[in-house]
Amino acid sequence: QKEVEQDPGPLSVPEGAIVSLNCTYSNSAFQYFMWYRQYSRKGPELLMYTYSSGNKEDGRFTAQVDKSSKYISLFIRDSQPSDSATYLCAMSMEYGNKLVFGAGTILRVKS
Amino acid sequence: EAGVTQFPSHSVIEKGQTVTLRCDPISGHDNLYWYRRVMGKEIKFLLHFVKESKQDESGMPNNRFLAERTGGTYSTLKVQPAELEDSGVYFCASSPYFMRRSKFFGPGTRLTVL
Questions:
Q1: Residue B54 contacts A where some CB pair is shorter than 8 Å
Q2: From B93, which residue of chain A is nearest by alpha-carbon distance?
Q3: Which residue spans within chain B are E strands per DSSP?
Q4: Does the structure show a pLDDT above 80 at B1?
Q5: Low-confidence residues in chain A, pLDDT < 70
Q6: How close, in Å, is residue B113 to chain A by CA atoms?
Q7: Given CB atoms, is B45 within the 8 Å cutoff of chain A?
């Protein structure tokens, strides 16, 4: 069983839609949770960072962590074609240490 | 400010050959990480340098892989001899010492072993 499960998609939505991306994990030792965005032929770029359970909002992006369910989510409001990318969840047990990634979800926002 | 750079962007080699990948982190970043993504799999951690010291090399798959970071600046990852299963994209990331959560990734080196 993978430590982090993420549906690879692709997920296709119309412009302006609310997008919901999520990951589940099995290791309760994970404390730090991240979402990365990766455009084609580029490296991952950190979008959101959350410690432990709770919500965090940054502009059109909201990250949620539910440690009791071992479930994390990323919501994108008013999605734009420029949001089309692969979204990777990642988590770590200790601050700043090695990341364990999900497989990534391919998102396509159609104009 | 320049980001993390990696060289080459793409390398095609024959099985059994040697390849060396290079990573130049953002200037002043003490932490340097190597990750890789093989076909159809997740991005996986290989190792972590703090300056020139190996902090964690638990992800290195076997002794055919050798990473160095002489002088605490750029890093090299050598694969010798390369096997077919080493094909994938190798990413380097760096972060400042006191903001280790802020990892900046390079564009990756795509390695193809034939």
A1: no
A2: A43
A3: 5-7, 10-13, 19-24, 31-38, 43-50, 53-56, 65-68, 75-79, 88-95, 104-105, 109-113
A4: no
A5: none
A6: 19
A7: yes
